[in-house]
Amino acid sequence: MMLSFRKWVSVALVLFFLAGTAFTAGFGIGRYVLPYPETPSPVSDESVQEQFRIFWQAWDLVEDRFYTEEALDTQEMIYGAVRGMVESLGDRHTVFLTPEQADLFREDLEGEFGGIGVTVAMTEEGWLRVVKPIPDSPGEQAGLRSGDIILEVDGIWIQGMSLVEAISLIRGPEGSTVAVRVRSSDGLERQASIVRAQIEVPTTESRMLEQGIAYLAVYDCNAQATKGVREGLDDLLQNSPAALILDLRGNPGGYLHVAKEIANEFLDDGRILIERDSSGRETVHPASRGGRATGIPLVVLVDAGSASAAEIIAGAIQDNGRGVLVGQTTFGKGSVQVTERLSDGSALQVTIRRWYTPADRLIEGQGLMPDVPVTMSEDDFQAGRDPQLERAIQLLLSQMV
Amino acid sequence: MLAKHRIAYPMVALVLVVAMFCGGLALGWEADRRRLGRFSRGPEDFGLFWEAWDRLERMFWSPAELHAERMTYGATRGMLQALGDPYTSFFEPAEHQLNADRLRGEFGGIGVQLGGDRTGVFVASVFPDSPAEAAGLLVGDILVAVGREATAGLAVDDVRLLLRGPVGSVVELTLERHGGRPVTVPIQRQEIEIPSLEWELLQPKVGYVQLRFFSDRTPKEFAQALRSLSTEGASALILDLRGNGGGVVEAAVGVLGELLGKGIAYREVAKGEAETRYPVPFRTEVLSWPLAVLVDAGTASSAEIVAAAVRDNGRGLLYGQTTFGKGSVQAVFPLEDGSSVHLTVGRWLSSDGHAIEDLGVVPDIPIGIDGDPNEDQVLQAALSDLQSGLVQQPSPVTIALLCNMKAMSVK
């Protein structure tokens, strides 16, 4: 009996020791060696996390108390959080794109999409303005005109949306119908139903005008633009033109490298632009030799729809004294965005740099002033007149004499 | 028997060791999760958010450091917006404070209305008998600083808050008048009330109360207004709830206490809960005057509770247009840094259980808003009906009769 009791105690002690060791080892390994399988936040700054506590308080409130007939869509809540966080930066060019929007945005830059065939820009008040309907597009056939303001798309109020969001509403499967509410420049509002179609975007257009003046329009600085410009110039130069008009009106921009390539066709030396990042680091982009049209007298047409990459081209030509800008003050988007894909296919379009003209002028929020200001009124548009082009021709003719 | 035991001991030991190891591992993980939990919690795929945050920190072009507070507020606002409920929203600390003051109906201040434009924040109006008036503040004075804080670059709401503080404390204002040299004026804060209603005797016997919103002070103000009207000889009441967007629900219930004295004020359904009935405060003495309630499309929320309870209990007649139809209940949840979340936490139903959301409260006597905009047709209709005595005992018969009379008079 005695012996068995001692044996018992010793067995118990050994077991206790073993169990304790096993537990400690397990705890240690669990706590310090094997990391807990959860996505840790890359933002490890404790002050940020302290600050962020209120977000989780709000999140918990929603999970516990929010009254809704449907199930909570946490995916939407996360997207909402990212969107709100991005908006708080107060930069209208820095935006969050859901996976669908990100795909759409990429298609856009590649130059082929299904839509209604009008180019649009965002107004100061946050509406969409029709910059230019593409000839024979569904939008033009439905009566959309330059300067029309799009207020609603399928009953959804546009104001307050980003340009990309608004465009993603207008787009849809080919053959489907979209209803837009439009206010024309005479103040009248109307509803238009437009059948979406596959839109072939003409990127460039070139032709010879009278009296030996060549005309080259660049509607977009997308991936096809450089090729279009080079081929257009080759065609035009065969006619040995005395002068050239480069039309950048309504060109909303596109890729930076495309802008540089196009500017290079007109410049032999000098700078194209200066870029600065947030730490003040500077990159100067010089022009290189080998352009096709570096000597011919040049006038560039610009208006409030000329933005971003189009402003780079116009600014480079203006500051290098290569040509004269005719038209209206440009849009004023002098910042560079990159599109960063995130892990789930959504994307961030982030302003990473600002750009300045070769003479170090700030473009963001200011735009380029034309050397020869010429406006184009709604009457001119309705009557099919183009006073800006006429003035450009007149200028070039007077120079040639 | 013995042999069995010999095998069992090491087995037991092994099981125990393995169990303890696994237990330790689980607890260790849990400890690690809790440690991480302070940094990354929420659903698994929330990593996307930090991914975006991180990219912005590294790449975004900004002349200054990114502002973690502003980004957090933005994230919270965006997350709540994504719920798609127009009444669920986020209020930053300043907005929350102003809103709370309004709902409380009073605060310590100096008695000015501020405005803001490109020139800065200026005095838009000075309340009569306020500390601001006593200190000689004039409309148009530009606020350069409050205390030591310069107002340049501040939002009007933020300046408004700087002016507020404990009753009896002193705030120093630096003002600029007509481009002259800035002067500094000390002003002692007083209790500033935000009256939620106005009342007057419209006709010898008809009292009129315009309730603009419901604050904590509303029931007291309403009782006072009724007492004063009574002394002035009123024996009928027009309660104008047009344009009243709501406010504190308890205040609406308090007003119903004066008018009904018993019964159900409204019912509420919250997430995962059965219907709750909120009673009207019991009163032995209840206002017995004939009652006309004026409503329109701007009558919402708490104001609809009052209108619906009056109708459901046959206490009076509703004149005007169908109300807004806001049948959701919001609660204000303050967060730890002074910001707050307004969250939709339920649906409310009228006293008799009618749904209000999207439907609104339909008036007994519908009166359109067409016609002479200078003439308040709704008020005129209520006034003449009260004088005719037909509102005394609302019943389907009297309502039909009144509606017919209106139709005839229109013809």
Distance between the termini of chain B: 110 Å
How would you sum up the major sheet of chain A?
A: 6 strands, antiparallel
**Strand content bin of chain A:** 15-25%
Overall number of domains of chain A: 2
Assigned CATH superfamily of the largest domain in chain B? 2-enoyl-CoA Hydratase, Chain A, domain 1
Top-tier CATH class of the largest domain in chain B: Alpha Beta
Total individual domains of chain B: 2
Per CATH, the architecture of the largest domain in chain B is Alpha-Beta Complex
Distance between the termini of chain A: 129 Å
Q: Uncertain segments of chain A of ≥5 residues (pLDDT<50)?
A: none
Classify the fold: give the CATH topology of the largest domain in chain B.
2-enoyl-CoA Hydratase, Chain A, domain 1
Series of secondary-structure elements of chain A, N-terminal to C-terminal: HHHEHEEEHEEHEEEEEHEHEEEHEEEEHH
- The backbone outline of chain B, from C-alpha atoms, is globular
Number of H- or I-type helical stretches of chain B: 11
Report on the structure:
The complex is a heterodimer of chains A (401) and B (411). By secondary structure, chain A is of the alpha+beta class. Chain A is 36% helix and 25% strand. The longest helix of chain A has 32 residues, at 2-33. Chain A is elongated. In chain B, 36% of the residues lie in helices and 25% in strands. Chain B is α+β, with helices and mostly antiparallel strands and 411 residues long. Chain B has two domains: 106-193, PDZ domain (Pdz3 Domain); 197-410, Alpha-Beta Complex (2-enoyl-CoA Hydratase, Chain A, domain 1), CATH 3.90.226. The longest helix of chain B has 36 residues, at 2-37. In chain B, helix 4 packs across helix 6, helix 7 packs parallel to helix 8 (249-259) and helix 8 runs parallel beside helix 9. At the A-B interface, helix 1, helix 2, helix 3, strand 17 and strand 18 of A face helix 1, helix 2, helix 3, strand 17 and strand 18 of B.
